[in-house]
Amino acid sequence: MFRSSRLPCLSAAGPRPSSTSFLVLPSRRHYAVSIRPSTVWPGKPEPRIFNERKTYLFNQFTSLLNRSSSRPVLFIHHKNFKADSLIKLRREITATALPKGAKQLSLLEVAPDPEMVPRLAIIQSSVFGVALRNFAPLDSETIQRIASMAHGGALAVITLPSLDPPVLQDILRTLEHAIPPKKREEEQPKQKGKGKDGDEEGFVPGRRQKRQKPMLDPELSVAGALIEGRVFGVEQVKDVSKLPTLEMLRQQIVGLISSPAVQLAMVLGEASGGRLARTLDGFKKALEDGQTTKEENTSAP
């Protein structure tokens, strides 16, 4: 919880001596990734020194960006997600890379390497912004596009061990199914009224009624992806998920390259085999028949 700041409320005539009123400032937290250089304060050491937790997060985010050239990074927005829902979502995302028939990672005889399965991580935007602006391999335009993905809610990332379109498609499908259907207004629990027009069940005059927490619907959406140093939008990520696997593309390329050579070998094999021999025998017989006919014509009186 973030406490709201309170300042004395001043009117045009000045503060009232008999009563004290306060102006409540909004304490809304904005999830934004700032890539601007940090402010240099007099007496503060440069570069800035983080505590142990922020140093660990800074190194983790830097390693994430460094490995993005070979390991795609999927950015997602999450809102109103409880801890147990995030744990369940983590398990479902990890299960997308497991062999068919294996529902859980713990049920496998040999557990796979944690680095070889998709992983979901929550991003602390302030530290991620510092790691992003200090990451030299990315140009300023790419950094700006990545920073713009943080606008719209809390940010999380899903790292993939490699570019595997079927696994990416399964992850997108898992994210769609992770959001429960929104409840209708008539299904929302109504607060109990009081008085003659309201519901008097459980109402005690002079006693303040219990406040009911509003039912917040969880939200989850894909913001984009960083694949091989390039930023992809939502629609481009969907297009990438529909591509065939890299192994299938290699087989298709090998087939296209080898098919002309196979056809040429077949033609040469046929020409060097029985077809050429039969053709020469035909020419020989035709020449012999023509020569015999010519001799008969010359010998006739």
Automatic annotation (TrEMBL):
Transmembrane segments: none
InterPro entries linked to this entry: Ribosomal_uL10-like_sf, Ribosomal_uL10_bac_type
Region annotation Disordered: where it falls in the sequence: 178-217
SUPFAM superfamilies linked: Ribosomal protein L10-like
Biased composition, class Basic and acidic residues, residue ranges: 182-197
Family: Belongs to the universal ribosomal protein uL10 family.
Name used for this protein in its record: 50S ribosomal protein L10
Organism: Sanghuangporus baumii
